Amino acid sequence: MSLKLVDIKELKKARGVEDDKRSRSGSRRNFLKGLGFGFLALQPSLNAFGKLLGNDIQYKKSEKSITFFSDEGNSWNIDLKSFDGNPKLIFRKKQEDYHLILRNAFYPGTGLPMDFKAILYNDLSWRIKIIFTKLNISKDLNLSDWINGKIRISSLVHLHDRIGLNNRYSLDIEDHYHFIIDKYWKITLRGKDLANYKVNKFSGTAKQICFSFPVQNDLAYCNSNFEPKLKLSFTTRNVKPFLSNWKMFNGSELYGYSEALHQVQILKSERLSDRFLSVVLIDEKDVKAVCGFLFCKKIKGNLEETLTLYRSQLAIELNHESEKLIFFASTAKDEFWTNSSEVSC
To answer: For 224-267, what is each residue's pLDDT tens digit?
Structure first.
């Protein structure tokens, strides 16, 4: 079975082995640089960036991005290339304050509006009052603490969004959530008890759901031509929504073991308008505790054999032309086991 998005060799290498530290291809590095998801780690020179004299804020401004710096050398970056929509960034000084506005911006790969208005003002120390105008979130923060990652913004919001994974599959999020965002634009959603989601009408629950910008480490199991713009991750005991449409050879079926915690990671790409590509990776969070999956193998007639599987890695590739699944695991005897499938209509 040929997969276009998943790197099978890297998936095999990862079984019981630490993440591969070797550098990826040059095209991948260029892709990540182009996304503008990096954050400067070094303090800029006084002559190069913004107005840094006296007790003024420290920043570097370009046409489509702005980066603010703390005295400790940390930074907070707003880059229009990181967002969907037709984002516009406005930054200007009014008397002693600075006004910062982001308009027409959506979290990449979603319909989540990220528009905000912010005022940076000095009250013994620099502070930022930020209002996410379409999420009804308003916070007043110490600017240095925000840039240094010591604090996050949190509020209660109601979200209703459908995130297309390809032309057939989508992940639906609809609930009242505890919404948390940090300076890296990582968003964490927590439900009242559990966060709820749906995959093609099959419901699932998770303790939390996280949105983030993909980084190079997220591409370890993907081919170099796969360029994701969104990473979704959550931990759940119920992976049935991701297995509901799959049938293995001869009617055999794959089930997630209900006692195992599974780490789900979804990487979404969007190459053309309304044409989505996605990779779903599912691993056991604690591989030593219990088996992760059960494979019910049809033998003959009503007879079937159930295999308990450990150290599992499941990759689902959702592209334009086809939808494929590849699965690696070990049996109770620590033998290597693998299977694959295409989606059933």
So the answer is: 888 899 999 998 888 888 887 676 666 778 888 888 888 999 99
Q: Would you tell me how many other CB atoms lie within 10 Å of the CB of residue 100? A: 19
The mean pLDDT of 173-179, rounded to a whole number, is 83
Q: Are 314 and 322 in contact (CB under 8 A)?
A: no
Tokens of 227: 């360029």
Sign of CA dihedral 3, 8, 10, 15: positive
Within 8 A by CB and 6+ apart from 294, the residues are: 254, 255, 256, 257, 306, 307, 308, 309
The mean per-residue pLDDT over the stretch 92-111 comes to 95
Residue 325's alpha-carbon distances to 142, 245, 246, 248, 328, in angstroms, are: 47, 11, 8, 10, 10
Number of Cβ within 10 Å of residue 306's Cβ equals: 9
Separation of alpha carbons 199 and 190, rounded Å: 18
Query: What's the pLDDT tens digit per position in 321-340?
Result: 778 888 888 887 777 778 88
